[in-house]
Amino acid sequence: MKFEPNQKYTTISIYAVITFAACLTLVILAMNIPVIAGGAAKISSLLAPITWGVVFAYLMNPVLVKSESIFGKIFCKKKPHKKACRITAVTICLFVFLGLIAAFFAIILPQLILSIQQIVNNFQSYFTAVQDWVMKLVADYPDLNTFAIEQLNKVRADLSGYLNTVMPSIQTFMTKIGSGAWSIITTLLDAFIGIIIMIYLLFSKEVFIGQAKKISSAIFPKSFSASLIRVCSHTNEVMGGFINGKIIDSVLVGIICFIGMTIMKMDYVVLISVVIAITNIIPFFGPFIGAIPSGLLLLMSDPSQVIPFGIFILVLQQFDGNILTPQILGDSTGLSAFWVMVAIFLGEGLFGFGGMIIGVPLFAVLYTLIKDFVEYILKKKSLPVDTAEYMPLPTVKIKTQHKSFKLSRKSTKKSKNNDKK
C-alpha cells in the first residue's frame, strides 16, 4: 500500500508537536525556578564588570561627544584627526569620571556620615525642642494637647528604633571598608574593570554599533531588522537624553541648593543638598519627596529655619521647572504631564524608587511604539492619523446654530410686523 502524505494533516501534526514542546518547556522551567534563578544570579555576577562598564560608558557618552566636538573645532580645523580627537575626548571623560568619584569619597561622603552621626547624637535634644514648640502651640487646647503628646511619643519611639538600626549598619559598613571585606573588594574590583571596559566602549563605540546592526541584519528579515534598529535608536535617544539631562539638572540644583543654604547659614547643608539633588531626578514629585524630610530635619534642629528653607526650595524648584529643566531637557520624552504621572506611579509600583526614575523614559518609548503602530494600522485602512479628527465636535457650532436660531426668530418677528403694517 502506497503512503500519500496529506499536507493539511502534516501541518496540523507540526503545530501539535510545537505546542507540546512549548508546554513541556514551560513545565520544566516552572519546576526548576530556583535553579534558573541561581544560574541567572551567577551569570549576573560574572557579567558585573561588563554591566558596570556599559553603564559608565552610557553616562559618559555625552561628555565624549561634546569634548570631541570642541576639540575638533579648536585643534582640527583644517584636517580632522579622528583618532587624535577620540583619544583626547576619552582621556577627558576618564579624568571627569575619576574626578567625580574622588570628590564624592573625599568631600561628600565624609560630610554625609558626619551629618548622620550628628543627627543620631543630638536626636533627643532635637526632639525635645520640637516637642516644646508643639506644646506651646496647643497649650490652650487640652484635647489637642493630649493627642499631640501621644503622637509625639509614638514618633519618638519609631524614630529612636529606626536610628538605632541605621547607625550600627553605617558603622558596620565603614568597618567592612576599613577591614577590607571580600564583598567590598569584589565590588571595587568589578568597578575598576568596568572603568577599563568603559574606555574600550567609548573608544570603539562605532565598531560595536556596526557589529550589532550587522548581526541584526543577518539574523532577522530586512523589514524587521530596520524596525528593530529604529526602535533601539529611539530608545537610546529618549533614555540618554532624559537620564543624562536629569543628572546634569539635578547636580546643578544640588549646587545651587548648597550655595543658597550656605549663604543663609542653615544646618546640614551638604546632607540636604545631596537629598534635594537625588530626589530631583524624579520628575514631578521629586521636589516634594526631597523637601519634606529635609524640612522635618531642620524642624528638629532649628524650627526657625523651616519657613526660610521652604520659601527657598519653592523658588529653587520654580526656577528649575520653568527655566533650567526646559533648557537642558527640552521635550526629550514627548509626554504630557498626565502620562508623566502615570509613568511615575507605574514605575514606583513595579520597580520601587528606581522605577520612578526610569519609568518616564521607558513609558515614553512604549508610548511612541504604540502611537506608531496605531498610525500604521490607520494608514492601512486609509483613515486619518491626526487625533483632532477623532475629537468631539466643538460646542462653537451649537452656539452658532443657537445664534442663527435667535436671528431667524427675530427675522420672523420683523416679517410679521411688516405684514401687519
How would you portray this structure in words?
The relative contact order is 0.06. This protein is 85% helix and 0% strand. The radius of gyration is 32 Å and the shape is globular. The protein is mainly alpha-helical and 421 residues long. The termini are far apart. The chain has helices at residues 7-31, 33-46, 48-75, 82-121, 123-137, 142-179, 182-203, 205-219, 222-263, 269-279, 286-301, 306-328, 337-351, 353-380, 396-420.
Distance between the termini: 109 Å
Average predicted confidence as pLDDT: 75
Rg: 32 Å
Strand content: under 5%
- By DSSP (H or I, 4+ residues per run), the number of helices equals 15
| Number of E-state strands | 0
Q: Structural class from helices and strands?
A: mainly alpha
Query: SSE order, as H and E?
Result: HHHHHHHHHHHHHHH
What summary fits the major beta sheet?
none
The dominant shape is globular
Low-confidence region ranges: 177-181, 396-416
Helical fraction equals over 70%
Short description:
With about 425 residues, the chain is an all-alpha fold. Helix content is about 85%, strand content about 0%.
Write the layout of secondary structure elements.
Layout: H1 7-31, H2 33-46, H3 48-75, H4 82-121, H5 123-137, H6 142-179, H7 182-203, H8 205-219, H9 222-263, H10 269-279, H11 286-301, H12 306-328, H13 337-351, H14 353-380, H15 396-420
Helix pairs in contact: 3-4, 3-7, 4-6, 4-7, 5-6, 8-9, 9-10, 9-12, 9-14, 10-11, 11-12, 13-14
